[in-house]
Amino acid sequence: MPKLAVPVTPAELSRTMAALAESLVSGVAPRYVDCRTRAGEKSTESFGVVARQVEAEGGECVAGWALWELPGVFVEAEYCALWRGPAGELLDIVPRTSPTRRVLFLPDPQRTAVPAGQRSVRRPVVNDPALLAYLATFDQEAQLFARGALDEKSGAQRLAPADVGAYERVVAQRIQLQQSVQSLYPEWGPYSPCWCGSGQKARWCHGVQQA
After folding, report:
1. Which long-range contacts (CB under 8 A, 24 or more apart) does 47-52 make?
2. Staple partner for 154: which of 48, 55, 180, 197, CB 3.0–4.6 Å?
3. Which residues contact residue 211 at a Cβ distance below 8 angstroms, ignoring those fewer than 6 apart?
4. 22-75 confidence digits (pLDDT tens)
5. Dihedral of CA 161/163/165/170: which sign?
6. Is the torsion defined by CA of 108, 98, 53, 148 positive or negative?
7. Distance of CA 186 to the CA centre of its chain
8. Per-residue pLDDT at 77 exceeds 90
9. How many C-beta neighbours within 10 Å does residue 15 have?
10. Any idea of the CA torsion for 6, 188, 196, 8, to the nearest 10 degrees?
11. Contact 157, 145 (CB under 8 A)
């Protein structure tokens, strides 16, 4: 049976995910939002993409957190921007490395733009030393980028030249740790979140045979 190796859109709000969401934005419920990539867009910097869409078609930028999970391993909240069109429809219009039909989105009314050094938040589901060290490399990477220059329009953070070597070491460490973490990856079964990002369980979406 195939294994899930990357975080996907949750099919349900686990206790760990609910606790993460509450710690980020108290009293606000996450909601599923459709993905519809902006035509011709290649950048993955959401605030820049949404700003260009607002300039072209109107609407507004909505800041918040896209919620992901690798079931039984870790949950993740990615700080990002979505686009609300003039008619009121909320959409994720940013290209993603893994094609996704929907995201589970937690609006953050207290934020209107990308703050310097903002990074994704990850919480382990299991207390595994290799997993903890693996997740720590993402925080180390974010700290390095936070020391670089910030493009205020796009929200993209650039590495300072002096930090390039440290960044390469962090990435190398992550690759090494990933070999140990792979044993934790869950098998992709009928009750797993579907790989397509629909927010449904696989049994009622694409099914195991189509993985």
Report:
1. 47/80, 47/81, 47/113, 47/114, 47/153, 47/154, 47/155, 48/151, 48/153, 48/154, 48/155, 48/156, 49/81, 49/93, 49/94, 49/95, 50/81, 50/82, 50/83, 50/93, 50/94, 51/153, 51/154
2. 48
3. 2, 188, 195, 202
4. 999 999 999 999 999 999 998 888 988 999 999 999 999 999 999 999 999 999
5. negative
6. positive
7. 19
8. yes
9. 9
10. -40
11. yes
The reported pLDDT for the residue numbered 210 is 47
DSSP per-residue string spanning 177-192: HHHHHGGGPPB--TTS
Q: Please name the helix (run of DSSP H) or strand (run of DSSP E) that holds residue 23, with its range, or none.
A: helix 15-24
Give the type of residue at 176. Q
Distance of CA 153 to the CA centre of its chain: 20
pLDDT per residue as tens digits for the range 86-135:
999 999 999 988 889 999 999 998 876 665 556 789 999 999 999 999 99
According to DSSP, residue 78 is labeled: E
